[in-house]
């Protein structure tokens, strides 16, 4: 049985800002997923008879697509709860079909209230990369300043740090190639079950700015919470105030985009030395 619909707050639109308060252009900050309706409609139209769009799922998806827009809560749920019935919920430790009342919105709210989202949004900030990082852009840093001298944030090993949020697009090799996404797909996180991709090229949360490091301090962990299959981040080691948060993008990432990993250009990670925050 499907968990109750989780309806996103579609009106909460905010721009990303770096630690100087400057708007980072053209990207919207959101704490909720969105469905890229065009990509799903195209995938359903182009390959109706092929995996992964078949049978009951195809009917459910078509129905979902017909019944709502890209910010429809049911549609987001129908994608994220795809084949999660047999998985254990991380919060209540039950299978969804054990006890339908135990899961869904309640467990998902619980997960969000545990603060993983807040860790990224409140304890971290997006900073322009320092000149010696070897590449341009922004990165995510654990704040090393606090208002009014409050306690500095820190992250301990195994802490949950957040969740990768963005637009949900169908996973399909051909559809994926066809679907370039924003920024040529550089912000796409491949979904944990080869059913969908999360593209944070246009919409996303702070985790879209997490850079690659060959010796990362975070790891992406797929998890089911409240019937939703999520990509979450967990700390591999203790992270101090002022440190950059990094993950390993996987072996093929830099080849795919014809880029070069700069973090260990000299055989060791370059010290990411952020400018002192104001
Ligand atoms: C998901 S984005 C990370 C955020 C990005 N720095 C920004 O400012 O938007 C991924 C892109 O960041 C850059 N990048 C991240 N880690 C890198 C690394 N270790 N070496 C070189 N480029 C990196 C690459 O251009 C890559 O395609």
UniProtKB/TrEMBL annotation:
Q: Which PROSITE patterns match?
A: SET (PS50280)
Question: Is Methyltransferase among this UniProt entry's keywords?
Answer: yes
Q: Which organism is it from?
A: Apiospora saccharicola
Q: Where does it live in the cell?
A: Chromosome; Nucleus
Q: Which SUPFAM superfamilies match?
A: SET domain
What keywords tag this UniProt record? Chromosome, Methyltransferase, Nucleus, S-adenosyl-L-methionine, Transferase
Protein name, as recorded: SET domain-containing protein
Lyase: is it a keyword of this entry?
no
By its UniProt entry, which InterPro entries does this protein fall under?
SET2_Histone-Lys_MeTrsfase, SET_dom, SET_dom_sf
Which residues, by range, are in coiled-coil regions? Answer: none
Locate the transmembrane regions by residue number: none
Domain spans labelled SET: 122-250
Pfam families named in the record = SET
| PANTHER family xrefs | SET DOMAIN PROTEINS
